[in-house]
Every structure is written in structure tokens, then in C-alpha cells.
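User: Design a sequence. Structure:
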């Protein structure tokens, strides 16, 4: 295992030490779309010491079921991404859409930000539904059959990842960091907790594709 320092790329750190994902999320460090940046640059932008972040990573526990992504072949990577992320996230997308509509309808008069949040979320769901389908029906079959992926489809996926990340940031801003008001009902609470969990999972999903699958699948 390589020793980590300020020159280590953020995405590589999470691949090597999955527990780093929570540390980076806590400090607002982008490890999925910004995974190619050195840790020192990312920490400098966030105003946090590299040594502090490295110490937190060293003591962070990895998820119990975290796979060793670097040990999987390309076909296995595609299979595991679909199993670990696509299947449950498609279910979450549908469930959270119903909650977003319901909570905006019930509480939108007192909390108008919920209407904006629902609109943003529904747009994100529609985009991700299409994105997952393109990966499963076009990109992943290319990788499985050819052993690599042509650059243009990969770049389209990368661009859509950035767009999804932008919407996640807007959702967090609109919701005030998913802070619940005093009059929040159980559905309100379930929506915000669900969106926060979905954000974490999607960041990990994008990280695996951007920083593990795509670099290995590109034919150069």
C-alpha cells in the first residue's frame, strides 16, 4: 500500500483507503469528479491542513462490505457497479421522488424551498435514469466485449457526472445542509435523511467510475 502524502491524488486515496470518503465528505473535499487533484491542493482550497486530514484517514474505518476495486477486472467492475450502485440507487430515486412530491405538497406553503428542492430532485432523477440506462446498455457492454471503452462515450459519462454533482450541491444548499425545521414530520425527516444518504452513495458511485473504471478502460 502506497504511503499517502499531499501529492497523492484524492481519488486514489479513496480507492486505497475507502474510509477516506467520509473524511473528505466531512471537509467538503470532492473525491469523485475532483479525484485527479493532489490532496495538498484540495486541502488548501478548503482551508484544512493536509496533516489533519491524513491523520483522520489513518483512523477512519472502511465500510465493512467495501470491495477491493483495484483487484477486480473490467468485466467484474461493471458487474459490481451495477449490483452495488445501479440497482439500489434506482430504487432510491423512485422512492425519494414520491417523498419529495409529498413533502413539498404538504409543507411547501410554510417552507417554499421544498418546492425548489423537489423540482431539482425530479430533474436529477430523470437525468440519472437515462445515465444509468446508457451505461448498462451502451458503455458497459462495450467494456465487457472489447476490453476497453472508446473515449467519446467515457467523456459523455464524465460530463454527466459533473452535472449530477452540481445538482447535489444545489440540493444541499437549498435544504440548508438538510437541516430539519421544528415542524418537520416523519416524511420530511425521511426525505432529508434519504437525500443525504443518496448524496454519499452517488459520490462513491461516481468515484469508482471516474477514478477506477474509466482510467483502466480507456485504450491508452
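Assistant: Done.
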Amino acid at each position: 500500500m502506497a504511503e499517502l502524502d499531499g501529492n497523492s491524488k484524492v481519488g486514489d486515496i479513496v480507492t486505497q483507503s475507502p474510509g477516506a470518503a467520509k473524511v473528505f465528505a466531512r471537509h467538503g473535499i470532492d473525491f469523485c469528479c475532483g479525484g485527479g487533484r493532489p490532496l495538498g491542493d484540495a486541502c488548501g482550497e478548503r482551508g484544512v491542513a493536509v496533516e489533519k486530514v491524513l491523520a483522520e484517514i489513518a483512523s477512519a474505518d472502511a465500510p465493512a462490505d467495501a470491495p477491493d476495486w483495484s483487484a477486480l477486472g473490467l468485466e467484474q467492475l461493471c458487474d459490481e457497479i451495477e449490483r452495488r450502485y445501479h440497482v439500489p440507487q434506482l430504487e432510491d430515486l423512485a422512492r425519494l421522488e414520491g417523498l419529495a412530491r409529498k413533502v413539498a405538497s404538504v409543507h411547501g406553503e410554510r417552507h417554499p424551498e421544498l418546492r425548489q428542492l423537489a423540482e431539482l430532485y425530479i430533474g436529477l432523477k430523470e437525468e440519472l435514469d437515462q445515465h444509468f440506462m446508457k451505461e448498462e446498455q451502451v458503455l458497459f457492454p462495450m467494456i465487457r466485449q472489447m476490453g476497453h471503452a472508446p473515449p467519446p462515450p467515457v467523456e459523455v459519462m464524465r460530463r454527466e457526472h459533473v452535472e449530477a454533482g452540481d445538482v447535489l450541491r444545489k440540493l444541499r444548499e437549498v435544504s440548508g445542509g438538510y437541516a430539519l425545521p421544528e415542524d418537520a414530520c416523519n416524511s420530511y425527516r425521511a426525505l432529508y435523511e434519504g437525500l443525504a444518504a443518496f448524496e454519499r452513495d452517488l459520490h462513491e458511485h461516481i468515484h469508482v467510475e471516474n477514478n477506477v473504471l474509466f482510467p483502466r478502460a480507456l485504450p491508452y
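The chain is about 70% helix and 0% strand. The helical segments are 10-16, 20-27, 39-46, 50-59, 74-107, 113-146, 151-174, 186-217.
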